[in-house]
Amino acid sequence: MDDRYLRTGIFLAPFHAVRENPTLAIERDMALIEHLDRLNYHEAWVGEHHSGGFEIIASPEMFLAAAAQRTRHIRLGTGVVSLPYHNPFTLASRMMQLDHMARGRCMFGVGPGALVGDALRLGIEVADQRRMMNEGLDVIMELMQNRTVTQRTDWFNLVDAQLQLKPYSQPMMEMAVACSRSPVGAVAAGRHGIGLLSIGGTSDEALKAHAANWKIYSENAAANGKVADRRKWRIVTLVHIAPTREQARADMAFGLEEFCRYFKDVTTFPMIPEGVSDPAEYLTSSGFACIGTPDDCIHHFERLWLGSDGGFGGVLLFAHNAADWAATQRSYELMARYVHPHFQRNANAMRQASYDMAAGTEASWRPVSAQAVASEIERYKPPG
DSSP string of 70-92? Predict the structure, then answer.
């Protein structure tokens, strides 16, 4: 489709090996967002985590407030805030403040909490997280629309709660819910008519699950009088590109093993099955990732588009830090230069048409032009 427009961005947990200097790692996360802002990426979503040692941003709204001061165009989202960990009134207050500080460039992504270790340390039963997310989201949606809430649950008690600020964004800040394997996120997002962030991989099986969850989203949106707008749907995928496939693989040797080990040892779902000796080959061949060239990335994104069964609004790159800093910057630059135009209403189509037109008429005008130049040279040639 020549008229499609995919927004581009990153999903930044972030992931940093435990042997790294944490201060410098967080500063590099900030430098990455500045780099993407210059390259005209649309969005950066930053996560919240409190345990495990790898994902070391505990307060995405604090990080994004600083990022808003150091960038000009890129939109900044929480990707995501874990609702069971926060009183919904104070969280909504902080996000409304951020909406003003970022002059409408911030987005509010929410979820139940992905790391079991976080919930355990907060004394939250894992079985309660999704129920708590829904309870918190229902309240936050009311508060963000300037309504007053009185509600008591087993984990918060609000009495005539109303925010002090009206939203800077009109009519309200953009919001989204993370959705992985469980359809809970799709149900919640559809019920409120807000965005959907599909995480959990892009293998053929995962794409089928994402498409099924979008159908669930659409059904719940319709049941609640909301419109299922595919432009509100983002899919997260893992990508690293270089001028050659060999270089891309070599780049990822820097930290891919540690990255995959973290998912095996700490997170809910291992990224690589037991017995896999070549993680890069597995991730690429399974469709979970694209580790290759800009052309390979174009084919990968086309596959995501087809697998979505109707299209989606944005592709978010899983910020893995498995390549070193220089190679990481180069990958994002190559993508901005050679991949994004293909998915943004074929941005170079008119340039190519103009080039082809000029090249197609060269035979007719070049001899005439050459003769005109020769005639003028002869005209002003000194006598003798």
Answer: H-SS-EEEEEEEEGGGS-HHHHH
Q: Are 4 and 233 in contact (CB under 8 A)?
A: no
pTM of structure: 0.95
CA dihedral sign of residues 184, 190, 192, 195: positive
Helix (H) or strand (E) holding 170: none
User: What is the distance between the alpha carbons of residues 149 and 89, in angstroms, rounded to a whole number?
Assistant: 9
List the structure tokens of 338.
């050679």
- Label residues 120-130 b or e (16+ Cβ within 10 Å = b): eeeebeeeebb
Q: Which CATH code for domain 7-347?
A: 3.20.20.30
Do 332 and 42 touch, CB atoms closer than 8 A? no
Report whether 309 contacts 246 (CB < 8 A).
no
**What are φ and ψ of residue 51, in 5° steps?**
-155, 170
CA distances from 221 to 188, 192, 247 (A): 9, 7, 45
Greatest Cα pair distance in the chain: 106
User: Rounded to whole angstroms, what are the CA distances from 312 to 5, 188, 316?
Assistant: 9, 18, 11
User: Tokens representing 258?
Assistant: 């540690």
- Give the residue among 190, 188, 16 at the shortest CA–CA distance from 112: 188
pLDDT digit string (tens) for the chain, length 384 residues: 467 899 999 999 999 999 999 999 999 999 999 999 999 999 999 999 999 999 999 999 999 999 999 999 999 999 999 999 999 999 999 999 999 999 999 999 999 999 999 999 999 999 999 999 999 999 999 999 999 999 999 999 999 999 999 999 999 999 999 998 889 999 999 999 999 999 999 999 999 999 999 999 999 999 999 999 999 999 999 999 999 999 999 999 999 999 999 999 998 888 999 889 999 999 999 999 999 999 999 999 999 999 999 999 999 999 999 999 999 999 999 999 999 999 999 899 999 999 999 999 988 888 988 899 899 888 888 886
